[in-house]
């Protein structure tokens, strides 16, 4: 029984599919990625624990909040905000300016090292999509992300890592997506009074807004999709 347990344990990642990987190619951008994360593009992103705001005792799983929905996901590892705040401000400006073209195909998620009372107050900028605390730094440690510099990880729609960039490398993320996704022309406004958002927030007509945080809950469905 001990030997059987050892054999099953050694094959666990292959059995559940997490041990499957693919070589570098157009989707698995190994050469174009920064070596800021221990996972290599083409491999599955490992699961780890993160925490909702206001609930620092009950951890949830990263895979639980990144369920497959047919979209790419950009995970922003914000690191310790005291060290990364300047880079986050630059990233916020770049996302507001460029990301709306890929609104239909990309979701954001922010993982913040440490904890605080409110995400925006802690970061110094609005968070990118849904946000979660990495209270014990377990998530940053799991992926080898330096908490003083942070990183961005672009997950493919099937959950494998596709591209890695620094927080100031959003232009490279856009070039990666441009090879794989047809961008949309969108009408955006930064007039807070007209959109009901705060001044400077970007609102895209007829689209879920990547730049704004989402509430936890059921995934929204595109018009015309029948839910069984």
From TrEMBL:
Keywords: Oxidoreductase. GO terms for molecular function: oxidoreductase activity. This is Phenol hydroxylase-like C-terminal dimerisation domain-containing protein. It holds the Pfam family Phe_hydrox_dim. It comes from the Eukaryota. Residues 21-183 form the Phenol hydroxylase-like C-terminal dimerisation domain. It comes from Friedmanniomyces simplex. Transmembrane segments: none annotated.
């Amino acid at each position: 029984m001990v030997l059987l347990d050892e054999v099953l344990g050694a094959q666990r990642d292959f059995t559940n599919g997490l041990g499957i990987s693919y070589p570098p190619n157009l989707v698995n951008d190994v050469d174009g990625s920064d070596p800021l994360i221990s996972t290599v593009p083409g491999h599955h992103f490992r699961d780890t624990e993160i925490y909702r705001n206001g609930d620092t005792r009950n951890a949830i799983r990263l895979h639980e909040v990144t369920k497959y929905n047919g979209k790419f996901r950009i995970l922003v590892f914000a690191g310790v905000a005291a060290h990364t705040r300047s880079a986050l401000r630059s990233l916020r400006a770049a996302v507001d300016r460029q990301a709306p073209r890929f609104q239909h195909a990309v979701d954001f998620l922010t993982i913040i090292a440490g904890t605080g009372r409110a995400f925006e107050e802690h970061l110094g900028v609005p968070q990118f999509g849904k946000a979660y605390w990495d209270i014990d730094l377990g998530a940053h440690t799991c992926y080898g992300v330096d908490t003083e510099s942070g990183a961005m990880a672009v997950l493919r729609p099937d959950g494998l890592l596709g591209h890695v960039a620094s927080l100031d490398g959003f232009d490279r993320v856009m070039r990666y997506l441009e090879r794989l996704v047809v961008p949309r022309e969108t009408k955006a406004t930064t007039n807070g009074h007209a959109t009901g958002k705060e001044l400077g927030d970007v609102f895209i007509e007829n689209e879920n807004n990547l730049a704004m945080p989402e509430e936890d809950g059921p995934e929204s469905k595109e018009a015309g999709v029948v839910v069984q």
